[in-house]
Amino acid sequence: MTDWLGLPPLAAAHGGQIDGLIGWIHVFMLILFIGWGAFLAYCLVRFRRSRHPVANYTGVKSKASTYSEVGVAVVEAILLVGFAIPLWAARIGNIPPASEALVVQVTGEQFAWNIHYPGPDRVFGRTDLKLLDLQSNPLGLDRSDPAAKDDVTLVNQLYLPVNQPIIVRLRSRDVIHSFGVPEFRVKQDAVPGLTIPIWFVPNVTTEEMRTRTGNPKFQYEIACAQLCGLGHARMRGMVVVQSAEEFQKWMQEASAEQAGAAADPFR
Ligand SMILES: [Cu+2]
To answer: Model pTM greater than 0.85?
Structure first.
């Protein structure tokens, strides 16, 4: 229905509502544009100098302009109260319980996305600033904590299962970044000192999207959507959406591999 907008392909359950809202805004703004444009053209002709050599100081007596302005305000109120606020409230208020979702922590830094999964035990391991190492441990994860043993950390790679609610706990380590994945119709600023939850349900796997777009190299991408410094343009992460089974398998392997590497750093 909203193909005419030329938006990126849609790959999240709630995205249709966002596209619908964007579509309605465009329709109303087009009506406004045509209306005001026609009014301007009418005024230019109607009040041309050759017909009105002397200025008229009384002004317009008709109420038409008042009515049209009220009309515009009403349409804008409908957009805001009828569409935008309910949609926003549903996105912000109805966060699914963590037990039904995959929770993943995403921490922006200049200029990368640090991804942290709690692992199969679903508990995030302890992190400690003192353990923070820009190269080997950018999140300062304490591998001696039992809850951290199965944790998986990655840089610029986000793996997600399809058709499952995802809760991203978004944070920043330095400046304001913004987590944006256009296909998921998700965009949220990452603010230092805050952990901001966002959630969505990806409903098209990377494989399916490749077939659908006819582009065998298609990749979902996290784009940093706030100018955050000189390296902003290269602050990209890739997102891989897999079937639940593929994701489980990947998670088991990554978890085992990272636990092994942590136990034997010289391996
Ligand atoms: Cu950034």
So the answer is: no
Give the torsion sign (CA, 219, 182, 166, 192).
positive
| Exposure letters 103-137 (e unless 16+ CB within 10 A, then b) | bbbbbbbbbbbbbbbbbeeeebbbbeeeeeeeeeb
Contact (Cβ atoms closer than 8 angstroms) between residue 76 and residue 32: no
| Digit-coded pLDDT (tens) for 54-72 | 887 887 788 888 898 898 8
Return the amino acid letter for 56: N
Please, is 85 exposed, middle or buried when counting C-beta atoms within 10 Å of its C-beta (0-12, 13-18, 19+)?
A: exposed
What spacing in Å lies between the alpha carbon of 101 and ligand 1's midpoint? 26
Residue 109 CA to ligand 1 centre (angstroms) = 7
CA of 114 to the centre of ligand 1 (A): 12
The answer to whether 237 and 156 are in contact (CB under 8 A) is yes
User: How far is 34 from 141, CA to CA, in rounded Å?
Assistant: 57
Return the amino acid letter for 21.
L
* Ligand 1 midpoint to CA 75 (Å): 36
Residues 145-166 have pLDDT tens digits of 888 888 888 999 999 999 999 9
The burial class, CB within 10 Å (0-12 / 13-18 / 19+), for 185 is buried
Residue 82, number of CB atoms within 10 A of its CB = 12
How many whole angstroms from 238 Cα to the centroid of ligand 1? Answer: 14
